[in-house]
Amino acid sequence: MGEAVQRPLGVAYRWLWSSSALSNLADGVVKVALPLVAVQYTRSPTLIAGLAVALVLPWLLFALPAGAFADRFDRRRLMLGANTVRVALSAAGILAVALDVGSIWLLYGLAFGLGTAETVYDTSAQSILPRIVQRDHLSRANSRLFGVELTTNQFLGPPLAGFLVAIAVAVTFAAPAALWALALVALLFVRGSFGTAETGARTRLRADIVEGLRFLRRHRLLRALAVLTGTVNFATNAVFTVFVLFAVGSSSAMGLSEPAYGVLFATTAVGSLIGSLVADRVERVLGRGRTLRLALLTSALLVGIPAVTTNPVLIGAVFLTGGVGMMLWNVVAVSLRQRITPDRLLGRLNSSYRLLAFGTMPLGAMVGGALAELVGLRWVFGTMALLVLLALLGGMKTLTDEAMDTAEQDTAPV
To answer: Which structural domains are found in the chain, ordered by start?
Structure first.
């Protein structure tokens, strides 16, 4: 068993990993650079905040069609096409700056276009992996992909964006374009055909989408994982939407400065990076069921700790632990659904799953703000912790190794 775990994941996986690193570094630059560039055209907080909405809105509008496309066409070609669109959009930004026709509305168009390309790329990338590595190695492969995604997107991309904007706006668009172009080249070395049994099938797109939604609705384990993911995302967004009011300023409960607040939040990202490095080992030692239950418990602690203390060291320690738990959940849950979903449905399942997971985020933010206004900040933290604990209790019978083994055995290997 030890030798199997250490077996190389293969040349194709290394090129896919490299492409992911480059693409996510570009994503990390863009998400920070866009608002930095936007302040040169407007000082309106609403218009600048709207750029973040424009980036994520395509997930609500196009996630389901993107999943259908991932099951209908060659997934590697879809990824190549998405990165080609990203390069073209970045080139349009460079041209607009050169011709002095840039505007906040141009940035909105670029953000929406880049977000749309991201839905296609990310859905296809999660769906292609089971065709590149063996099923027994999916957890290790996913943990490395999540690790490089986190490192490039959250640690390297944001400071690089600030550096690029300080040089010139044109350079800010040129750097992501170059990174996406390199990612495209790396994908060209992922050899093979990555279509499905339905590639080229002449079916209605709506019928394809409905089939994917129906599969998720009828599969007890996958449905439970999707609901639990959505619940945790709801709770964390409810908490972190208002946490700044609890933590920052002399009149706040914690009394932190802005830099100290940034350091406190970084502990979650550090924990997630640690989680990506140990997820495969933890899964093998504890089993999938215990690992997922442990991840939910750490999420409950993560959102609930501010209800009982204002100590930044204790909160930071729990945030770090919660970051580890969130990454454990991501690696195990994603690998599991890749194992038990038929290949011809994997794109639609991934998109349906992520639509539910992402769709609860704005709802959580709204509920968190409303609760804080009505009953106070600590009630938000305590209520969300209770919600996650109730979800954990409700999922105890589903999140077992026996249930997962049964679900995996019922799915024929690809």
So the answer is: 10-190 (1.20.1250.20), 211-409 (1.20.1250.20)
